[in-house]
Structure formats: C-alpha cells, structure tokens
Amino acid sequence: MSADTETGAVGAESGAVARESGAGVPDAGVSVPDSPAARLQALFEGHRLTPTQRRIAHSMVRRAADVPFLSSVELAELAGVSQPSVTRFAVALGFDGYPALRKHLREVAPTEQTAASASYNEYQQAVEAEIENLRHLAEVLADPRPVQKAGRLLAASRPLPVLGLRAAASQAYGFAYFAAKVHPDVRLLNEGGTMIHDRIDAAVRAGASTLLCFALPRHPREVVDALAYAKEAGLTVVSVADSAFAPVAKVSDLLLPAAVGTGLAFDTACAPMLLGRVLLEAMCDDLPDAQARLEEFDARAAARGLFVE
Q1: pTM of the model
Q2: CA 178 to CA 113: how far, in whole Å?
C-alpha cells in the first residue's frame, strides 16, 4: 500500500471511488447529486486528508444534515478525535478555522424543515431520512459506469467470494442468495474468525479474481484486515460501504457508497441493500446465461412445488 492510498486525495465523488484511471468520472451533462451528503463530499473533493481527517469527513457525511449546527467539540466527540484535530481539518479544507467551515456549511447546505416534516415523530423522521438516502443513491446512479464496471468484475470472477460481517452479514447473505441463481460459484463469507483467511486462500486457488464486500458501521477491524489480505492475495476488492470515507476505502479498488440511516437506535440500511440489488442486475448483464439459469430454476421450483403462489 502506498502512502498516497493511506493519506490520499479525495477522488471525484460521482458515487464511486475507483483507483483505476478514468473510473467514476461523470460524463458532461450528468447531474451532480444535490443533497447534504453530496455537497459535503464535493467540498472534500481533491483535498489530501490524513487518516484522522478522513475519519472526521466520514462522520460528517453520515450526519450531513446535523453537521452545520455542531460545535467543534461536538464534531470531535462524534468522530472520536480531538477538538484541535477538527480545527486542523477545517484549515486543511482552506478555511480559517472551524467557525468559518460551519458558516460555509450553513450557507451551502440549508436544512430548514417544512411545516410537515417538523411535525414528524421519530419513526417518520427515520423513514424520511432513508427516503433522502435513496434519492441520493438515485442521483449517484445517474452515472452508471462504476456499477457497470463492478458488475463486469463480479461476473468474471469464478468463484465469487462475498464478504460481510456483523451488521453487514445480512447484506452479504442477501446478495449471495440471489447471485447463486445466476452465477456458477458464489462463496459467502459471513462469519469472522481465523478461518476467513483460509477461505480467501481457497477462493484464490479456485480461480477467484474479485471479492465483493459489504461494509457497514460499526466497521469491524477484521473486515479491513481481511480486505488487505485479499488484495495481497491478488484479488480485486469491490466494496459497498456507507460512505466514500469508510475505513474499507483504503483497502478497496472500487468503492460504491450508499448512506445508512442513523435516526434510530440501530442503523437502517435501505440504500446499501438496494445498491446490492443494482449490482446484481449489472452482474447479470455480463453473464450470458443468466436468463437461462433463472428460467431453469423457475421450472425446477414449479416441478417441486417450492412456492405457494
């Protein structure tokens, strides 16, 4: 891993962070996402950020609507860093200090509530936040090339290991369940421990070229370690994560961000789940026999009386 990967410039935030030249750069005329999270990511674009500063940026993106009203101390607590680190982060972005950064955020990302939204209870607010996350994902997908590239990589990998631990285990399971209907060899890695490296080694020996990872907060250290191990073993790592500043970014070759909701006691992950289904669609587009496999499954399911409808 080069120093530029660890302390790198934030790439074009068209919805994907890709280290290969030309990936993730939107065409002229492609709409630029216009949401609090997207505006924050645009602000960070092109700046070289240290690991601590990327952690602050990641926390800000996750709480994009609240950030313009947080003090430097509150932001430091949110990111788990020191208050001086927040000040240095603001200066790194070109501001005189954090007050100037916060003033700018209030100007470019107004968050006035409508009369209707102000009356929402906490459950409705959580749903509204997820709707906003889905709108942002739709805007990001205006440039389909990063997802299409990911689909090609996944389709070409035989076998295809799919990793997701803890909060992301269900996302990995859901993807692997459907992918197995069209892909000849999908291997689910949803249990941590010392065996995970063995299973990555087995996939590489069997001919795998790409590993797909779902990574959601709180991010387990062993996921980052497993991805680093996979890259060392020669695999291309495609990750679906909650932001371009997630801890897995530094060990991913292609990162596709989809925000999670944070309004309830436990995070909600509608956008990552939907992005996983979009990836399935893109993978199917590069599997010539995908339709035949689905039709074969449907015929066998009907013969077995597998479903009640």
Answers
A1: 0.75
A2: 39
